[in-house]
């Protein structure tokens, strides 16, 4: 029994001496990453969930140490913001139409609010005259007795000449034919007395 006690004391003394020697020599206890951030440490076992990653800094210019890499130039097709839309009519015009390009715009004090929208106009012998005209009246649905034809969203501005929905692929008998969207936008925007300018 005394040999068991002696062995136990000897073992305790060896452990104590080893700990003291490690402290004196500056050895550190092995530590492992925690199993999860803030979790327990188990020596020799890597962390199961990595800790927060650090954000990398901006890329550095190899030609100028310490300077960040400048941003790349814009692509060649990018020319900046689009230019404002302009129309060839005066500031007094609320509706503007150019016959040579088959385009129309809605305007407010010289500023385009809608357009250009495609149009067609009078064929030879029925030419749409250029000029400045006040809107006389408008009718959402009008039947032309002269041409036996439907005229939706009709805005009359020069006698029997009006803007209305019609096939823009072919010329008219003097009216301004418009797409459904264009004709409705004109109908909703213009009122009797508003100025329409028709330019060559």
Provide key terms for this protein.
200 residues, alpha+beta, nine-stranded mixed β-sheet, 2 helices, 9 strands, 17% helix, elongated
Structure overview:
The chain has a 9-stranded mixed sheet, covered by helices on one side. The protein is of the alpha+beta class and 200 residues long. 17% of the residues lie in helices and 28% in strands. The mean pLDDT is 82. The longest helix has 24 residues, at 2-25.
Explain the layout of strands and helices.
Blueprint: H1 2-25, E1 95-98, E2 103-108, E3 111-120, E4 131-134, E5 137-144, E6 149-158, E7 161-165, E8 176-178, H2 180-189, E9 195-199
Parallel strand pairs: 1-9, 7-8
Antiparallel strand pairs: 1-2, 2-3, 3-8, 4-9, 5-6, 6-7
Question: Concise description?
Answer:
By secondary structure, the chain is an alpha+beta fold. The chain has helices spanning 2-25, 180-189; strands at 95-98, 103-108, 111-120, 131-134, 137-144, 149-158, 161-165, 176-178, 195-199. The longest helix is centred in the N-terminal third of the chain and has 24 residues, at 2-25.
Globally, the shape reads: elongated
In this structure, how is the largest beta sheet organized? 9 strands, mixed
Q: Biggest sheet, strands in spatial order? A: 4-9-1-2-3-8-7-6-5
Order of helices and strands: HEEEEEEEEHE
Backbone CA Rg:
43 Å
């Amino acid at each position: 029994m005394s040999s068991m006690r002696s062995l136990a004391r000897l073992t305790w003394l060896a452990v104590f001496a080893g700990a003291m020697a490690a402290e004196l020599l500056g050895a550190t206890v092995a530590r492992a990453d925690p199993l999860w951030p803030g979790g327990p440490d188990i020596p020799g076992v890597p962390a199961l969930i990595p800790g927060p990653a650090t954000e990398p800094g901006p890329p550095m210019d190899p030609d100028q140490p310490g300077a960040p890499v400048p941003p790349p130039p814009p692509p060649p097709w990018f020319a900046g913001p689009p230019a404002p839309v302009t129309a060839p009519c005066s500031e007094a015009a609320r509706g503007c139409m150019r016959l040579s390009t088959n385009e129309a715009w809605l305007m407010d004090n010289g500023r385009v609010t809608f357009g250009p929208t495609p149009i067609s106009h009078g064929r030879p012998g029925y030419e749409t005259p250029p000029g400045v005209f006040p809107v006389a009246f408008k009718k959402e649905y009008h039947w032309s007795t002269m041409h036996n034809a439907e005229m939706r969203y009709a805005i009359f501005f020069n006698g029997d000449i009006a803007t209305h929905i019609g096939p823009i692929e072919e010329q008219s008998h003097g009216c301004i034919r418009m797409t459904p969207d264009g004709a409705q936008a004109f109908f909703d925007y213009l009122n009797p007395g508003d100025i329409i300018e028709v330019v060559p």
